[in-house]
From TrEMBL:
Residues 40-350 form the Protein kinase domain. Its EC number is 2.7.11.1. The lineage of its organism: Eukaryota, Amoebozoa, Evosea, Eumycetozoa, Dictyostelia. ATP binds at residue 69. This is non-specific serine/threonine protein kinase. SMART domains: S_TKc. It comes from Dictyostelium purpureum. Belongs to the protein kinase superfamily.
Length: 374
């Protein structure tokens, strides 16, 4: 299901009509090629989403292989919104690069072709496919995830989210399709088009933060604003006065506060994690009754989450352990009560887990993808 955005909410953002190439163009230290589409040979199509497509490409000089995402911004429904998403994505990836984040695809370069109206991102190719396909295949094979497997994958996602949030970024579209599997079987968080960066609006009293409209439009923002990580960042994200209200995400995984259009914080990503946990444990989606369930109905279901969660948990007995149920209820919960990474790590569901190893990607994944060498 595609992410939903309400354009009027995004028009607050002041983005130049023509994308500023200086702000969008980016080259990592390792990348020696040209910022030009002609420097790449397209090998195959890897995937496509609502805003563009991702191809496997080879840089002609170095013969290095990359995943290239292209996003078209002319002749599309809401060009300004698409541009805004493109800058957000670019900025979030640059931030992750600067922080040497191992849980995000590395961005080698980004550039814009203003004649064709396309944004390009040249990323590290993550070859194990997406987590949605992986889960779906398991379901079709009738192989349920074991508790140990679920523990591993949810812990990996906690590490992804914790690092992302630590830079002041909210992902806002956490769903299995946006999670990639690397060659070793570790999970990597992708698709930052819906992300939001808090802005350092230094005040006389030191750091203060707001969801200022300029956050998505500034090309260098990702690398600049969090060089001085605020001491009190997590409490900012919890503070309703400083949080966000844009309606964004993918219905089935959207937190109730996002659906209701009230203030939300990084905790919206942990609701999505709870919805994924429910799916891994039960093999069914929490707020979707059938493939015919409309987006409107899903939103209504999320509004009535308490009753639906109780019924869904009852229906899933005895397949759902008490400890898994407890973690689901800590995540699919009102925002003020929901736990974040700190709380999640202490939850008995994760008893015995090596969090240090998880963080460093040294815990062996339960599954290693077979990589097609061609
Ligand atoms: N770095 C990468 N390496 C390998 N595959 C990738 C990479 N980035 C994206 N993909 C594949 O391409 C698909 C589409 O990418 P992505 O989700 O970023 O596009 P999108 O248009 O923003 O999608 P959405 O509809 O979720 O907004 C992903 O589901 C994934 O399968």
């Amino acid at each position: 299901m595609e992410p939903i955005l309400i354009p009027s909410q995004h028009n607050r953002l002041n983005i130049p009509t023509e994308p500023n190439e200086d702000e969008f163009n980016y080259k990592s230290d390792e990348f020696k090629g040209q910022l030009n589409i002609d420097s790449f040979e397209i090998l195959s199509n890897i995937g496509s989403g609502s805003y563009g497509e991702v191809n496997l490409v080879k840089e002609k000089n170095s013969q290095e292989v990359y995943a290239m995402k292209k996003i078209f911004y002319v002749d599309v429904n809401d060009s300004e919104l698409v541009k805004k998403r493109a800058f957000r994505e670019r900025n979030a990836m640059v931030t992750c690069n600067n922080k040497n984040n191992k849980r995000a695809p590395k961005l080698f370069c980004s550039f814009v072709d203003s004649i064709e109206g396309v944004f390009y991102y040249v990323m590290e190719y993550i070859p194990g496919g997406d987590f949605n396909t992986f889960c779906y295949d398991r379901l079709v094979e009738g192989k349920k995830f074991t508790d140990e497997e679920i523990k591993f994958y949810i812990a990996e996602l906690v590490c992804c989210l914790e690092s992302f949030h630590s830079y002041g970024l909210l992902h806002r579209d956490v769903k299995p399709e946006n999670i990639l599997i690397n060659k070793d079987g570790h999970l990597i968080l992708g698709d930052f088009g819906s992300s939001k960066q808090a802005v350092n609006t230094t005040s006389s009293s030191g750091f203060s933060f707001s969801g200022s409209p300029s956050s998505a439009g500034s090309g260098s923002l990702g690398s600049r604003s969090f060089d001085n990580t605020p001491p009190n960042f997590s409490s900012f994200l919890r503070n309703p006065n400083n949080s966000y209200t844009s309606y964004i995400g993918t219905p089935q995984y959207m937190a109730v506060e996002v659906v209701q259009g009230v203030n939300y914080s990084k905790l919206c990503d942990y609701w999505s994690l709870g919805a994924i946990l429910f799916e891994l444990v039960t093999g069914t989606a929490l707020f979707v009754e059938s493939p015919d369930t409309t987006e409107q109905k899903i939103r209504e279901n999320i509004g009535n989450w308490r009753g639906l969660l109780n019924t869904a948990i009852q229906k899933s007995q005895p397949n759902i352990s008490k400890v898994a149920e407890s973690l689901i209820r800590e995540l699919i919960s009102p925002e003020r009560k929901r736990i974040d990474a700190t709380g999640i790590k202490k939850h008995p569901f994760f008893e015995g887990i090596d969090w240090e190893g998880m963080l460093n990607l040294t815990v062996e994944p339960p599954f290693k993808p077979t990589i097609d060498k061609n």
